[in-house]
Design a protein that fits this description.
By secondary structure, the chain is of the alpha/beta class. It has one domain (5-185): Alpha-Beta Plaits (2-Layer Sandwich). 15% of the residues lie in helices and 22% in strands. The chain has 6 helices and 9 strands, in the order βαββααββααβαβββ. The strands form 3 sheets. The protein has a 5-stranded mixed beta sheet with strand order 6-1-8-7-9. The longest helix has 7 residues, at 18-24. It is globular and about 45 Å long. It starts with a strand and ends in a 19-residue tail after the last strand.
Amino acid sequence: MHGFEFYVDPSRCIGCQSCLRACEECETHRGHSMINFDFIDRKETIGTAAYVCWHCDDPTCAQVCPADAIKKGEDGIVHASLKPRCIGCSNCVLACPFGIPKIIPEYDQMLKCDMCYDRTSEGKRPMCATVCPSQALAYVRPDEIAHRREKPTNAFQFGNQRVTTKVFMMVPLEQDSVSIDVVDYMWEERNEPVSEAQP
C-alpha cells in the first residue's frame, strides 16, 4: 500500500490482545503470533504494550545470520528466515536489540513479523492493524497520524548505537528519539542503613 506507514503507540494499548489473535491467523505464521506483547510493569500498573518488528534500516538479525537466511526487501521489510537456509542457530534472537525474532521449535526456524507481507503486497493492511480498537498499532498515511498529541520517530538509541527503522513509535513532542538503556531496567540494590537494635 503505497504511502502507508506503520505506527506503534504504546500509550494507546488497552491490553485486549486482539492483535495476538489476528496475527495467529496469518497464513505465513502457521498459527503462531509474531506480536511481542508486554506488561510494562506488572507489579505497579496494568499498562501493556504490543510491538511488531521494527524493520531496521540496517538489520542486525540479517548481519549475524551465518546462513544468509534473513533478507531485507527493497521496500524496507525485513522478512522471516528462509526455511531452506535457516539452521535455527538463534544468532538473530540474541542480536536483535528489540528482542523480536522467535525460534519456533517445531519448525527449527526463526519466524518474525514481516508486516503481513502477503497482505500488504496486495494492497491490504497488516492483520494486527486491522483489529486494534485503539489504534495502538496503526497502518495509515502520515497525514492521518498528524492530529495525535504525540509525534512519530523512527530513531532509537541503544547506548552509543543509533538504530533507525521503517516502523515509527509515537513519542512526546519534545523527544526526537527513543533512548533505551539496559541499566534503566536492572534491579538496583538499596544501600539503606540498618538501624541498630535498642537495648
